[in-house]
Design goal:
Order of helices and strands: HHHHHHHHHH
InterPro entries: TM_pro_TauE-like (IPR002781), TSUP/Inactive_protease-like (IPR051598)
Membrane topology: Multi-pass membrane protein
Main location: membrane
Radius of gyration: 17 Å
Number of helices: 10
Largest sheet: none
Protein name: Probable membrane transporter protein
Organism: Maribacter aquimaris
């Protein structure tokens, strides 16, 4: 056991809050799990492995519930996934200057979130959607897959704001797609860790945190299915993306000073 009982309880509390909030809009919370784990652990392989497993637990449960309630249409979702997988592999093979790239990434996330918040500022009595050619799904999937591979996260945090902004579908269906998209990429990442032999999972911490995010994730996705309006889902998505963007920009900007 790497942590004290008190430290593990506090970490579980943080993971519960993150998993509840993020799952309510179809996210897994991976980026915030990484941030919390870096405060208490020093083993990078353990940090990455635990965050990935917790991410997988949340989006697996979310994907199942969205499927059960009829919000998951694989016919609509597969184009995004088909192109994202090879492009994510390609993105992972690139070697960019890390600090500069993450500053660009942070700015992109902030712009995306502000745009989405602006979109939901007015009162709408219904949720308009638009019809786009299927080729757009392949293009968006490829772009998000490439970006996901470059930065090493599931990609839902990029995908959802874009689809919400263009009114690709209803917010709950976009959340369902984000969960499925992250699920596929998380499985791929986990397989990559296994093949590389870099997976490290301290069983006490992994079990405690896994159970915690399972409960929080189920609570969050049920909120999105029963309690949250379309605009609420969009606003929560925008706020979470804004927080991640600011954190990426501040942390990496300070490293360049």
């Amino acid at each position: 056991m790497l942590l004290s009982i008190e430290g593990l309880v506090l970490l579980c509390l943080g993971f519960f809050v993150v998993s509840t909030l993020y799952s309510s809009v179809g996210f897994g919370g991976g980026s915030s799990y990484l941030a919390l784990l870096t405060l208490v652990l020093v083993n990078f392989f353990a940090i990455r492995s635990i965050a990935l497993v917790c991410n997988l637990v949340v989006v697996s449960g979310s994907t199942f519930l969205y499927l059960k309630h009829g919000h998951t249409r694989f016919k609509d979702f597969l184009p995004f996934v088909i192109t994202s997988i090879p492009m994510a592999f390609l993105g992972a093979s690139f070697r960019l200057k890390e600090e500069v790239f993450f500053i660009i990434l942070g700015i992109a996330l902030i712009i995306s979130s502000v745009s989405l918040l602006w979109q939901t500022s007015g009162i709408k009595w219904n949720e308009p959607t638009k019809t786009y050619p299927s080729s757009l799904s392949y293009v968006i999937g490829a772009v998000i897959g490439l970006l996901s591979g470059l930065v090493g996260i599931g990609g839902g945090i990029f995908l959802a704001p874009i689809l919400n902004h263009i009114n690709w579908n209803k917010s709950v269906k976009i959340a369902a797609l984000a969960s499925f998209f992250i699920l596929v990429n998380s499985i791929s990442g986990l397989v990559g860790l296994l093949i590389a032999g870099t997976i490290e999972l301290p069983w006490v911490e992994t079990l405690a945190l896994g159970v915690t995010v399972l409960i929080g994730g189920q609570l969050g996705v049920r909120l999105s299915l029963k309690k949250l309006s379309a605009n609420s889902i969009k606003r929560i998505t925008a706020i979470l993306v804004l927080i991640v963007g600011l954190r990426v920009l501040l942390v990496n900007g300070l490293q360049l000073l």
